[in-house]
Design brief:
By secondary structure, this protein is mostly helical. Helix content is 89%, strand content 0%. It contains eight helices and no strands. Helix 2 packs antiparallel against helix 3.
Length: 222
């Protein structure tokens, strides 16, 4: 195993472990959409690990397909819908969450793979990532006001790193993403940090917003 393959495999193992643990933790808190998103990242890491070790083209295709969809519209849409569980008590059932995930993922794959949808793809990407940025900035502001400075900064770092990965992937070719080791490492670190930060952001937001929700309910009753 050469150094390049070893680095790829190590990065994939880190992503699989971190995303897997984060997904299980989010599922345990009944945040199924965010848990499914972490699980999808773990699946992409497993496919990339299989490609790095066995050089299986189909595994690489699956990994790149998941990555392309997530860097397009899937990741911002799923993060916003998942976070609505904290801000607006939007908690779809387990199977409904899976249906939402697959619908968003299939739409993103269709948008990313069809050549004649280039114009629409650019608009949808821009709108999705802009909405995610505004929404997460709002959540970070709420955390700052509540004194949760570490988690607020973590959310801001999370969205910036995810945007950098999406921009680099959009401007570069598949071969660039495949052969450029610094990009691969940055992508893996960003995805791993995303999974961890999603869990801690949800935990902090629940701690901050639950008392506010209770007060609002009491006020409406009285």
């Amino acid at each position: 195993m050469d150094q390049h393959t070893f680095s790829e495999s190590l990065a994939a193992i880190v992503l699989v472990v971190v995303a897997g643990i984060s997904g299980l933790a989010l599922w345990g808190r009944r945040h199924f959409l965010l848990g499914d998103l972490a699980g999808l990242l773990a699946f992409s890491g497993i496919c990339f690990l299989f490609y790095g070790v066995y050089e299986e083209p189909k595994a690489y295709t699956l990994s790149r397909l998941c990555d392309g969809a997530l860097k397009g519209m899937a990741l911002p849409v799923l993060v916003v819908l998942g976070m609505l569980a904290v801000t607006h008590q939007f908690r779809p059932a387990r199977w409904l969450s899976a249906g939402i995930l697959w619908t968003v993922l299939l739409c993103a794959i269709l948008l990313e793979t069809k050549v004649n949808l280039t114009g629409i793809r650019v608009v949808v990407r821009l709108c999705a990532w802009s909405a995610l940025t505004v929404f997460l900035w709002y959540l970070a502001t709420r955390l700052l006001r509540a004194g949760e400075f570490v988690h607020a900064i973590g959310i801001q770092v999370m969205v910036v790193s995810a945007q950098v990965v999406a921009v680099l992937a959009g401007n570069g070719s598949i071969e660039f993403a495949r052969n450029d080791m610094p990009y691969l490492l940055f992508e893996t670190i960003s995805a791993s940090f995303l999974c961890v930060q999603l869990y801690y952001a949800v935990y902090a937001l629940e701690r901050v917003m639950t008392p506010q929700t209770v007060r609002a309910s009491v006020s409406s009753i009285s």
